[in-house]
Specification:
It is built from 13 helices and eleven strands. The protein is of the alpha+beta class and 367 residues long. The protein is globular and about 65 Å long. The protein starts with 32 loop residues before the first strand and ends in an 8-residue tail after the last helix.
Length: 367
């Protein structure tokens, strides 16, 4: 790897060296912060013009750094796209933390609440929790992207930190305090003319990566300092233009997440009729609500939840595969095997075998 972490390369790294747990679209993050770098490097005929889909010969390299550890992994392009579309949600997804997308090199489209936004090198976008969005990689173009993920509790801690110096009570602080409390679904950061982003922003990310790679007794304070400096730069109106956009109402967001929690707790797959009975709303309204926040129909969202439950049971129990299929609402085992393969690009048995080998576990009975 180069001396500069921000020049992450796929050179010399086999593309079959991948870990499906290291993906950008996880729905939940327990840690206070996490930094993810994605490097997309096209080769000959590397990207299809259809929806920016990556071809088999395009490597995708990911470096993930956080409180627990630093991970480095590589994907064939087609597998990367399959994981993004199947493991989290097809194309559109949301999560319970703030996510800052920063474009190091190249360009990307971000689809947010049904609107398509273009970002070139040096620009960025903050996406708020539970905002439906998707990244669209541009055909035939190198792209190096950073994703800084901030837990909501951690953001509140940053905002509540005492500021003793008068100079700290500046416009940038007011702007990012407003953003985090306003309920806006996202905010753009477009650099002003003559702003050298490489000199002002890149070193902050570089220091964060190095800090996470070799933490010491003061790393928590150092990380908070660097993140506050980064926010101060991005929200400084002299350096970046900002465009906040309002989402759906807070009541609507809370209602959706109440529905999602209900669906996750129930055994089997939940139907629209069951949701109508439980929440006393029309099926049409419930369909539109789930569609807005997941990009899926109620049926497909219920199937996605079932597949995640099945994966958890395969990994954490010794239940036979047919028993797991019944627990998540399938009586037709062929249909279950097909649905699981569509979601994880492997059979339930292969999934269990790989997870057991990763954890050094003993084999389970399989049906």
């Amino acid at each position: 790897m180069s001396d500069s972490i921000l020049l992450l390369s796929a050179d010399g790294l086999p593309y079959d060296f991948y870990d499906p747990s290291i993906m950008p679209n996880r729905e939940h993050m327990a840690e206070p912060f996490e930094l993810l770098q994605i490097s997309v490097q096209p080769q000959i005929g590397s990207v299809s013009e259809l929806h920016g889909e990556l071809q088999q010969d395009q490597p995708v390299v990911i470096l993930q750094a956080g409180v627990r550890n630093v991970y480095y992994t590589a994907y064939p392009g087609s597998l990367f796209m399959h994981q993004i579309r199947k493991a989290a949600a097809p194309l559109l997804h949301s999560h319970d933390y703030y996510e800052l997308l920063f474009v190091l090199e190249g360009e990307i489209y971000q689809n947010i609440d049904s609107f398509r936004h273009f970002y070139s090198a040096g620009s960025a976008c903050f996406v708020s929790p539970y905002t439906l969005h998707s990244e669209e990689y541009t055909a035939g173009t190198d792209a190096r992207l950073l994703f800084l993920k901030l837990n909501r509790d951690y953001v509140n801690e940053l905002l509540q930190m005492p500021r003793y110096f008068t100079c700290e009570q500046n416009q940038a602080l007011k702007r990012y305090a407003y953003y985090f409390s306003s309920g806006a679904s996202f905010m753009d950061f477009i650099p002003r003319r003559n702003v050298n982003v490489r000199e002002r922003i890149h070193p902050l990310f570089e220091q964060l990566f190095r800090l996470f790679s070799a933490p010491d007794s003061s790393s928590t304070l150092q990380a908070s300092t660097l993140i506050c400096r980064l926010l101060s730069e991005l929200f400084d109106p002299a350096l970046f233009g900002n465009t906040p956009v309002a989402p759906g109402t807070r009541t609507e967001q809370q209602r959706f997440h109440q529905i999602r929690r209900y669906m996750e707790k129930q055994p089997g797959r939940i139907t629209r009729a069951r949701l109508e009975q439980e929440f006393h709303y029309s099926g049409d309204y419930l369909y539109k609500l789930v569609r807005r926040y997941t990009g899926l129909s109620i049926q497909d969202f219920a199937l996605q939840i079932s597949m995640k439950k099945a994966a958890q049971l395969l990994e954490s129990t010794d239940l036979r595969i047919n028993e797991i299929a019944e627990r998540v609402g399938f009586r037709n085992f062929t249909q279950f095997y097909r649905a699981f393969h569509d979601a994880y690009a492997m059979t339930p048995r292969a999934y269990r075998t790989r997870k057991l080998s990763e954890h050094g576990g003993m084999g389970y009975n399989e049906g």
